[in-house]
Amino acid sequence: MIKANILNIAKVLLFWILFEILMNGIGTLIPNSVNWLYGASIGGSVSIGLLGVTFLFLKYDKLNFVDMGLNFNAGSLIRLILSLVTGMTFFGCFYLVYLWLTPVIIVDIHVKSVINIILLSLLSLLMLAAMEEIAFRGYALKKLETIIGPRGAIYLTSLAFGLYHGFAFDSITGPAVWGLLYAVLAYWSKGLAVPIGFHAGANLIQALFGEKSRYADGIWAFDLADKITPFTVDQITPFLKIFLFVLGVLLVEIYLYQRKKSAS
To answer: Does the keyword Membrane belong to this entry (predicted)?
Structure first.
Protein backbone atom coordinates (compact mmCIF):
# COMPACT_ATOMS: atom_id res chain seq x y z
CA MET A 1 0.00 0.00 0.00
CA ILE A 2 2.78 2.43 0.94
CA LYS A 3 4.69 1.52 -2.21
CA ALA A 4 1.58 2.12 -4.33
CA ASN A 5 0.99 5.52 -2.72
CA ILE A 6 4.59 6.58 -3.29
CA LEU A 7 4.27 5.54 -6.93
CA ASN A 8 1.05 7.52 -7.33
CA ILE A 9 2.61 10.61 -5.74
CA ALA A 10 5.53 10.27 -8.14
CA LYS A 11 3.08 10.09 -11.07
CA VAL A 12 1.34 13.30 -10.00
CA LEU A 13 4.64 15.13 -9.54
CA LEU A 14 5.88 13.87 -12.91
CA PHE A 15 2.61 14.96 -14.52
CA TRP A 16 3.03 18.50 -13.15
CA ILE A 17 6.70 18.59 -14.15
CA LEU A 18 5.77 17.64 -17.70
CA PHE A 19 3.09 20.33 -17.64
CA GLU A 20 5.69 22.96 -16.69
CA ILE A 21 8.07 21.69 -19.37
CA LEU A 22 5.34 21.84 -22.00
CA MET A 23 4.17 25.30 -20.97
CA ASN A 24 7.62 26.86 -20.76
CA GLY A 25 8.92 25.05 -23.84
CA ILE A 26 5.99 26.00 -26.04
CA GLY A 27 5.94 29.50 -24.55
CA THR A 28 9.48 30.16 -25.78
CA LEU A 29 8.59 29.02 -29.31
CA ILE A 30 5.45 31.13 -29.76
CA PRO A 31 5.90 34.88 -30.42
CA ASN A 32 3.90 37.04 -28.00
CA SER A 33 3.38 40.04 -30.28
CA VAL A 34 -0.41 39.47 -30.35
CA ASN A 35 -1.75 38.78 -26.86
CA TRP A 36 -4.91 36.82 -27.71
CA LEU A 37 -3.07 34.68 -30.25
CA TYR A 38 -0.29 34.04 -27.77
CA GLY A 39 -2.77 32.90 -25.12
CA ALA A 40 -4.81 30.76 -27.51
CA SER A 41 -1.67 29.16 -28.97
CA ILE A 42 -0.13 28.31 -25.61
CA GLY A 43 -3.42 27.18 -24.08
CA GLY A 44 -4.40 25.07 -27.08
CA SER A 45 -0.96 23.52 -27.65
CA VAL A 46 -0.33 22.68 -24.00
CA SER A 47 -3.88 21.32 -23.60
CA ILE A 48 -3.30 18.93 -26.50
CA GLY A 49 0.08 17.99 -25.06
CA LEU A 50 -1.42 17.37 -21.62
CA LEU A 51 -4.16 15.20 -23.09
CA GLY A 52 -1.43 13.14 -24.74
CA VAL A 53 0.45 12.88 -21.44
CA THR A 54 -2.79 11.96 -19.68
CA PHE A 55 -3.45 9.24 -22.25
CA LEU A 56 -0.03 7.69 -21.61
CA PHE A 57 -0.46 7.85 -17.84
CA LEU A 58 -3.95 6.34 -18.06
CA LYS A 59 -2.71 3.59 -20.34
CA TYR A 60 -0.07 2.71 -17.76
CA ASP A 61 -2.76 2.71 -15.04
CA LYS A 62 -5.10 0.65 -17.28
CA LEU A 63 -7.72 3.40 -17.17
CA ASN A 64 -9.33 5.63 -19.82
CA PHE A 65 -10.52 9.20 -20.27
CA VAL A 66 -14.03 8.34 -19.12
CA ASP A 67 -12.63 7.24 -15.76
CA MET A 68 -11.11 10.72 -15.38
CA GLY A 69 -14.24 12.57 -16.50
CA LEU A 70 -12.44 13.77 -19.62
CA ASN A 71 -14.92 12.44 -22.16
CA PHE A 72 -16.80 14.83 -24.45
CA ASN A 73 -20.50 14.24 -25.05
CA ALA A 74 -23.54 16.05 -26.41
CA GLY A 75 -24.17 17.92 -23.16
CA SER A 76 -20.61 19.13 -22.69
CA LEU A 77 -20.98 22.20 -24.93
CA ILE A 78 -24.21 23.25 -23.22
CA ARG A 79 -22.62 22.86 -19.78
CA LEU A 80 -19.59 24.83 -20.98
CA ILE A 81 -21.72 27.75 -22.19
CA LEU A 82 -23.92 27.84 -19.09
CA SER A 83 -20.93 27.70 -16.75
CA LEU A 84 -19.19 30.41 -18.81
CA VAL A 85 -22.11 32.77 -18.26
CA THR A 86 -22.27 31.77 -14.59
CA GLY A 87 -18.55 32.47 -14.13
CA MET A 88 -18.89 35.89 -15.77
CA THR A 89 -21.87 36.75 -13.57
CA PHE A 90 -20.21 35.51 -10.39
CA PHE A 91 -16.99 37.45 -10.93
CA GLY A 92 -18.91 40.47 -12.16
CA CYS A 93 -20.62 40.64 -8.76
CA PHE A 94 -17.24 41.26 -7.14
CA TYR A 95 -16.69 44.27 -9.38
CA LEU A 96 -20.19 45.52 -8.60
CA VAL A 97 -19.28 45.51 -4.90
CA TYR A 98 -16.30 47.75 -5.65
CA LEU A 99 -18.46 50.08 -7.75
CA TRP A 100 -21.08 50.23 -5.01
CA LEU A 101 -18.93 50.60 -1.90
CA THR A 102 -15.64 52.15 -3.04
CA PRO A 103 -14.67 55.19 -5.15
CA VAL A 104 -13.95 52.94 -8.15
CA ILE A 105 -15.47 54.00 -11.47
CA ILE A 106 -15.42 52.48 -14.96
CA VAL A 107 -13.59 54.26 -17.78
CA ASP A 108 -14.21 53.45 -21.44
CA ILE A 109 -10.97 52.75 -23.36
CA HIS A 110 -12.62 53.57 -26.73
CA VAL A 111 -11.50 50.51 -28.69
CA LYS A 112 -12.32 50.04 -32.37
CA SER A 113 -14.20 46.74 -32.28
CA VAL A 114 -15.72 45.59 -29.00
CA ILE A 115 -17.16 42.38 -30.51
CA ASN A 116 -13.81 41.30 -31.96
CA ILE A 117 -12.03 41.90 -28.67
CA ILE A 118 -14.62 39.93 -26.70
CA LEU A 119 -14.57 36.96 -29.10
CA LEU A 120 -10.78 36.81 -29.43
CA SER A 121 -10.32 37.24 -25.69
CA LEU A 122 -12.84 34.46 -25.08
CA LEU A 123 -10.94 32.13 -27.41
CA SER A 124 -7.66 32.86 -25.65
CA LEU A 125 -9.06 32.46 -22.15
CA LEU A 126 -11.01 29.29 -22.97
CA MET A 127 -7.80 27.65 -24.22
CA LEU A 128 -5.88 28.76 -21.13
CA ALA A 129 -8.67 27.66 -18.79
CA ALA A 130 -8.77 24.26 -20.49
CA MET A 131 -5.00 23.94 -20.05
CA GLU A 132 -5.11 24.73 -16.34
CA GLU A 133 -8.14 22.57 -15.62
CA ILE A 134 -6.59 19.56 -17.37
CA ALA A 135 -3.39 20.17 -15.40
CA PHE A 136 -4.96 20.55 -11.96
CA ARG A 137 -8.47 19.10 -12.03
CA GLY A 138 -7.86 16.18 -14.38
CA TYR A 139 -5.46 13.29 -13.83
CA ALA A 140 -3.70 14.88 -10.84
CA LEU A 141 -6.92 15.43 -8.88
CA LYS A 142 -8.22 11.91 -9.45
CA LYS A 143 -4.87 10.27 -8.73
CA LEU A 144 -4.39 12.21 -5.49
CA GLU A 145 -7.88 11.16 -4.43
CA THR A 146 -6.73 7.53 -4.37
CA ILE A 147 -3.98 8.51 -1.91
CA ILE A 148 -5.42 11.15 0.42
CA GLY A 149 -9.13 11.10 -0.38
CA PRO A 150 -11.24 13.74 -2.17
CA ARG A 151 -10.87 16.40 0.57
CA GLY A 152 -7.09 16.19 0.57
CA ALA A 153 -7.00 16.07 -3.23
CA ILE A 154 -9.12 19.22 -3.52
CA TYR A 155 -7.07 21.24 -1.06
CA LEU A 156 -3.69 20.03 -2.32
CA THR A 157 -4.41 20.65 -6.00
CA SER A 158 -5.85 24.05 -5.11
CA LEU A 159 -2.66 24.93 -3.25
CA ALA A 160 -0.58 23.72 -6.19
CA PHE A 161 -2.76 25.79 -8.53
CA GLY A 162 -2.11 28.87 -6.42
CA LEU A 163 1.66 28.32 -6.28
CA TYR A 164 1.69 27.76 -10.03
CA HIS A 165 0.63 31.40 -10.31
CA GLY A 166 3.61 32.49 -8.21
CA PHE A 167 5.28 31.86 -4.87
CA ALA A 168 3.54 34.73 -3.12
CA PHE A 169 0.91 35.22 -0.43
CA ASP A 170 -1.51 36.66 -3.00
CA SER A 171 -1.33 33.38 -4.90
CA ILE A 172 -2.64 31.56 -1.83
CA THR A 173 -5.42 34.04 -1.09
CA GLY A 174 -6.32 34.41 -4.78
CA PRO A 175 -5.86 31.57 -7.33
CA ALA A 176 -5.62 28.84 -4.67
CA VAL A 177 -9.03 29.81 -3.27
CA TRP A 178 -10.55 29.90 -6.74
CA GLY A 179 -9.07 26.43 -7.17
CA LEU A 180 -11.44 25.18 -4.46
CA LEU A 181 -14.43 26.29 -6.54
CA TYR A 182 -13.05 24.77 -9.74
CA ALA A 183 -12.34 21.44 -7.98
CA VAL A 184 -15.85 21.28 -6.53
CA LEU A 185 -17.30 21.99 -9.95
CA ALA A 186 -15.14 19.25 -11.47
CA TYR A 187 -16.33 16.71 -8.90
CA TRP A 188 -19.94 17.86 -8.92
CA SER A 189 -20.23 17.79 -12.73
CA LYS A 190 -18.02 14.68 -13.09
CA GLY A 191 -16.03 16.35 -15.83
CA LEU A 192 -14.08 19.43 -16.86
CA ALA A 193 -16.53 21.27 -19.12
CA VAL A 194 -18.13 23.11 -16.18
CA PRO A 195 -14.91 24.20 -14.41
CA ILE A 196 -13.38 25.22 -17.76
CA GLY A 197 -16.40 27.37 -18.60
CA PHE A 198 -16.65 28.92 -15.14
CA HIS A 199 -12.89 29.54 -15.05
CA ALA A 200 -12.90 31.17 -18.50
CA GLY A 201 -15.95 33.27 -17.63
CA ALA A 202 -14.34 34.67 -14.48
CA ASN A 203 -11.12 35.41 -16.38
CA LEU A 204 -13.02 37.04 -19.25
CA ILE A 205 -14.53 39.65 -16.95
CA GLN A 206 -11.05 40.41 -15.62
CA ALA A 207 -9.73 40.62 -19.17
CA LEU A 208 -12.41 43.04 -20.35
CA PHE A 209 -11.29 45.37 -17.57
CA GLY A 210 -7.66 45.17 -18.65
CA GLU A 211 -6.45 42.76 -15.96
CA LYS A 212 -5.32 39.98 -18.33
CA SER A 213 -3.33 42.13 -20.74
CA ARG A 214 -0.78 39.38 -21.44
CA TYR A 215 -3.47 37.24 -23.07
CA ALA A 216 -6.35 39.56 -23.97
CA ASP A 217 -7.28 43.19 -24.63
CA GLY A 218 -9.56 45.22 -22.38
CA ILE A 219 -12.45 47.45 -23.37
CA TRP A 220 -12.82 49.19 -20.01
CA ALA A 221 -10.56 50.23 -17.18
CA PHE A 222 -11.00 51.14 -13.53
CA ASP A 223 -10.24 54.56 -12.08
CA LEU A 224 -10.76 56.26 -8.73
CA ALA A 225 -13.26 59.09 -8.37
CA ASP A 226 -12.99 61.92 -5.89
CA LYS A 227 -16.05 61.04 -3.81
CA ILE A 228 -16.93 59.84 -0.33
CA THR A 229 -17.74 56.12 -0.11
CA PRO A 230 -18.26 53.65 2.78
CA PHE A 231 -14.97 51.86 2.08
CA THR A 232 -11.72 52.15 0.16
CA VAL A 233 -10.48 49.50 -2.26
CA ASP A 234 -7.86 48.33 0.26
CA GLN A 235 -10.51 47.96 2.96
CA ILE A 236 -13.03 45.97 0.93
CA THR A 237 -10.57 43.59 -0.76
CA PRO A 238 -9.75 41.49 2.35
CA PHE A 239 -13.46 41.03 3.07
CA LEU A 240 -14.08 39.76 -0.47
CA LYS A 241 -11.15 37.35 -0.19
CA ILE A 242 -12.45 36.03 3.13
CA PHE A 243 -15.93 35.63 1.64
CA LEU A 244 -14.52 33.69 -1.30
CA PHE A 245 -12.44 31.47 0.98
CA VAL A 246 -15.39 30.71 3.28
CA LEU A 247 -17.60 30.02 0.26
CA GLY A 248 -14.99 27.70 -1.25
CA VAL A 249 -14.51 25.71 1.96
CA LEU A 250 -18.26 25.57 2.54
CA LEU A 251 -18.92 24.23 -0.96
CA VAL A 252 -16.16 21.64 -0.57
CA GLU A 253 -17.58 20.40 2.71
CA ILE A 254 -21.17 20.38 1.43
CA TYR A 255 -20.10 18.34 -1.57
CA LEU A 256 -18.15 15.87 0.61
CA TYR A 257 -21.08 15.54 3.02
CA GLN A 258 -23.52 14.83 0.19
CA ARG A 259 -21.10 12.38 -1.35
CA LYS A 260 -20.69 10.52 1.92
CA LYS A 261 -24.44 10.54 2.52
CA SER A 262 -25.22 9.12 -0.94
CA ALA A 263 -22.60 6.40 -0.46
CA SER A 264 -24.03 5.24 2.87
So the answer is: yes
| Structural domain for 122, as ranges | 2-263
- Is the Cα dihedral 22, 120, 164, 193 positive or negative? negative
Distances (CA, A) of 49 to 43, 198, 253: 10, 22, 33
Q: φ and ψ at 75, to 5 degrees?
A: -85, -10
| Total count of domains within the chain | 1
> What gap in Å lies between CA 86 and CA 90, rounded to an integer?
6
- Can you tell me the distance from the alpha carbon of 242 to that of 100, in angstroms, rounded to the nearest whole number? 19
Distance between CA atoms of residues 64 and 13, nearest Å: 20
Is the overall model pTM greater than 0.90, yes or no? yes
Cβ–Cβ under 8 Å, residues 204 and 88: yes
Is residue 162 within 8 Å of 233, Cβ to Cβ?
no
pLDDT in tens, 178-193: 999 999 999 999 999 9
What are the tens digits of pLDDT across the range 4-14? 888 989 999 99
